[in-house]
């Protein structure tokens, strides 16, 4: 018999999955075309284990060393079930070495120095057989030019992307955006779609678009998102104490 927390997560997950499936269907896209990245930052490894048992395999973390500790605590469950973790928060260059050991992708790359540090770290991780394939990189785009929210403006995107492409230990996956809190979400997502269209002309293989969270998931899917990052709607309110 499952415990109350597992039952809560199962119900919340089912609701989000249904909403995501409906959003995908409305766009005429193929079922399963949009990845659900469950954001588990601030929540314990026990919750991630519950989600893995419920069938989830893709997770998002945004703090290091919290993520490393959590993955270590999960142990063999991660490898045996094929669970993967993306780094979705800002990465300090001094922590690139550690992140490159556990992350499938880093979705928040917005600086040349960070690209260089991740490239070096990923190459070392490959050499030490701590990873088996290049580190995925999403270029984070700033839609409003606010430097406090991270991301590069569109004019700076080609140079950043080219730096990623030039690194053998990295793989340019695509773009990531966080819709600004001011203005209309639909307008921000429409702008994202236009930026992505131009980006794909230069990098046709970098098809991933990480856009949309709990509140704007359906709109993001409408404008082409291939990955939605959902935390609160599945995990509930952030705990008072974080590990």
From TrEMBL:
This is Pyridoxal phosphate homeostasis protein. Keywords: Pyridoxal phosphate. Its cofactor is pyridoxal 5'-phosphate. The modification N6-(pyridoxal phosphate)lysine is found at residue 41. PANTHER family: PROLINE SYNTHETASE CO-TRANSCRIBED BACTERIAL HOMOLOG PROTEIN, PYRIDOXAL PHOSPHATE HOMEOSTASIS PROTEIN. SUPFAM superfamilies: PLP-binding barrel. InterPro entries: Ala_racemase_N, PLP-binding_barrel, PyrdxlP_homeostasis. Belongs to the pyridoxal phosphate-binding protein YggS/PROSC family. Gene3D superfamilies: Alanine racemase. HAMAP family: PLP_homeostasis (MF_02087). It comes from the Bacteria. Residues 31-239 form the Alanine racemase N-terminal domain.
